[in-house]
Structure prediction request, 252 residues.
Amino acid sequence: MKKLKKFEVVAHRGDKASYPENTLIAMRSALKKGCTFIECDVQLNAENCFYLLHDDNFKNTGGIKQSILEMTNTQIDAITVHEPKRFSNSFKPTRVPLLKELLQLMQQFPHAKVMVEIKQHSIDKWGVNNVMSLLLKQLQPFSQQCILISFNAEAVLIAQQSSKLKTAWVLKNHNHESLQKAQRLKPDYLIIHKTKVPLNKVAYKGTWDWMLYGIESSAEAQKFAQLGYYLMETDNICALMEGDQKEACNEL
Prediction:
């Protein structure tokens, strides 16, 4: 019988299956259910504050299409991101959390790490150097618990050169060009969607650990773990947890 490989569950935008994504209630739930890794997205608004949000607007989470990049703190505070399409009014009202609020929450779970993805919308709007300067200043005091994620290789390089943060680069494709670039960049983690990796082939080795996203079950996670993939990002954390941890997850 093949020995099972250990993998780590990454909560994609928090406990997204149970609560509105990228909210403090979703993050707290994932941490309480035993996740040692959570992931969030951040955008930079017009007052140089980082908020948890995947898109550059609130259409999907709050029914408002206005861009967060152009909004003030007061305008954002008036929005509720309770995801009415998924949850109706069950979580209304839910505030848009600031990144600094999540970092404060992490202090209650000192053994956990948060993977903070800076979105390209903000980089395009405000410039990579400006965005990264502001973001690293905020993350640096929490460097033991934070991992900087980006699709943007320049943002990853700036984080490596200007901070003690661990970094993760997201690949759009698993090809020779991307892997050669990864060899030069040397991030701590390489991230890619599960459908982009070669089927039934051992993970390409480098100085990094691999993280796959789009994972839906423990069986699927185990299949990839056997090939050398370590972190599994999912929208449904309880589906990936096993043994006592799964029982505790389902009880909460």
In short: The first helix runs from residue 24 to 32. The mean pLDDT is 95. The CA atoms of residues 33 and 252 lie 7 Å apart.
